[in-house]
Amino acid sequence: MIVTEVVPHSLAVADVSPGTGRDWLAEIYARAPGPYVRLNMVTTLTGSAAGPDGTSETLTSRVDRAILGVIRRDADVVVVGAQSVRAEGYVVPRAARLAVVTSTGDITGHRLDLEGDEPGRVLLVCPATKVDEVAERAASIGARVLGVQGSGDRMEPAAILAALAAEGMTRVVCEGGPSLSSQFIAAGVIDEYCVTTAPLIEPAQAPFVTVDAASRPDTEVAGMLVDEAGFSYLRLRPRA
Ligand SMILES: NC(=O)c1ccc[n+]([C@@H]2O[C@H](COP(=O)([O-])OP(=O)(O)OC[C@H]3O[C@@H](n4cnc5c(N)ncnc54)[C@H](OP(=O)(O)O)[C@@H]3O)[C@@H](O)[C@H]2O)c1
Question: Which residues line ligand 1 (CB under 6 A)?
Answer without folding.
Answer: 41-42, 49-50, 54-56, 59, 81-84, 87-88, 101-104, 106, 154-155, 175-180, 183, 208
